[in-house]
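Example with several molecule types.
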Amino acid sequence: MTNNQAVLSWLEEMKKLCNPDNVVWIDGSEEQKKQLEDESVAEGELIRLNQEKLPGCFLHRTAENDVARVENRTFICTSKKEDAGPTNNWEDPKVMYAKLNALYKDSMVGRTMYVIPYMMGPYGSPFSKIGIELTDSRYVVLNMMIMTRVGKKVMEELGDSPDFVHCLHAKKDIDEENRYIVQFPEDNTIMSVNSGYGGNVLLGKKCFALRIASYMGWKEGWMAEHMLILGLENPQGEVKYIAAAFPSACGKTNLAMLIPPESLKGYKVWTVGDDIAWLRIGPDGRLWAINPEAGFFGVAPGTSSKTNPNALKTTLKNTIFTNVALDTSDNTVWWEGLDKPTPAHAIDWKGNEWTPDMGTKAAHPNSRFTAPASQCPCISSEFEAAGGVPISAIVFGGRRAKTAPLVYESFDWQHGVFVGATMASETTAAAAGAVGVVRRDPMAMIPFCGYNMANYFAHWLEMGKKIPNPPKIFHVNWFRLDDEGHFMWPGFGDNLRVLNWIIDRCEGKADAKKTAIGYLPNASDINVDGLDIDKATLEDLLSVDKAVWKEDVANQKEFFSQFGDDLPDGIKEELAALEARLSE
Ligand code: TSX
Ligand code: MN
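Resulting structure tokens for the full complex:
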């Protein structure tokens, strides 16, 4: 498929290492996809679902010990340890290459090595970057065909350039003890071994589009962020774009596909992306963003016609489900939280017989759908735009019971970076470990930053100086609890009321009050037409408890202390300024 010498010589080297029986280039054709699907079904890697109800859909089950990303086995291997920073695992590249090469040695004997040329970002876009993933998993190939742009056209765009990310994946023995997800940012290389789970093996996603790309952005003056991108259309037909970062379990995909409440007729949300944004300064001095992905790799449990009808509709065809339950009555899928009657009998995610009385979960809590973005009913007309979309507002969020109000606006860019750097979520019963523990996750990038996070904060601060017309930065919290432990804000579609205030602030059309933590809306600044919420509750949602915030500042300081002298002055200044304002 190519005469590219850089590609061919690397491929030869990897063939020698892994020793596959065959090598198959993925061309992106429909025929080759069909063939891979048929082979996967024959080998038991995929189950073909009801083709009347779910055409082109399949179910895959991973090994029981291989159901999520493995942060403790994820490494950033830079020549200097300081360049990985205190929040990443680090190993000397030489040591790591030696360890990995021993694991890959002859790992593909008797197997086929697939060569997947893929593009992150639209064809012909100055934002876009190319990767080539070598894998011995058909499941990886079929998922990459949904999540990225794959095949001949990518090799054409690469031409004879050596500028591509080298990605090697071998399933090996799915041995947890020898599982490694390793980024070498200085070599544009990613190596993954002993896993078959999405986030560990679809190397274009977290490994490239966040870890490697964040490092590239640092070196090249752009940003790779863990953000959804949505377009908000008002009744006049004007669309403004928002990029938003949230830690896991805050409903990012749901927000990206939000359906406005009945009472806000005329508004519409368009999805550009649900997970990753690449941002660059545009010729007009604004910040522009693309979604480098082509599909959604969404969490299935909790996805329903109440929480996210657009996601459900996206998954009705050409979708790969991973670790959900199989409803044997009609050969379709089911998961906890799906508003379709619980099946009387199913096969659970482990492949065992399941009935509701067993008290176990039918679908794994981290079970997934892989679905083409183009099938989303609310996909943005700008989804493929080579120049991206102009970002009016950056929104950070978290799951906080008491601390953060429903929404606030930062004073300026530097303060906004501080707001992102102090992002946190409180653990719920759904996650492992204690409930209510504060986990700090700056910009939701803790697991995904490919370099020292102190340098990442500095990069954010630098970008602010370079963007002539920067977006305003906000913080939201859909999860504030009252004293009885009930959610105070209805969330979901009603979050549009908050997004509208955010956009109005960007346009200079909405009022706010100045507080110790930033600008907050007055209760009267939020449109509550058609919403059953009393004024006292709304005022409570928009209040700042200084005592609670002082405790949070203590926790912020402790978190930042791990960066030592590397913590940028801009962050130190904002921390001191917040502390001073809280004591006024
Ligand atoms: O995704 C959520 N969003 C964003 C939606 C655009 N969730 C789901 C949890 C994360 C996966 C939310 N859960 C949101 C939210 O805004 N808010 C809540 C909390 C909540 C849950 C239930 C109700 C209200 C708030 N009300 C009833 O169940 C009736
Ligand atoms: Mn994510």
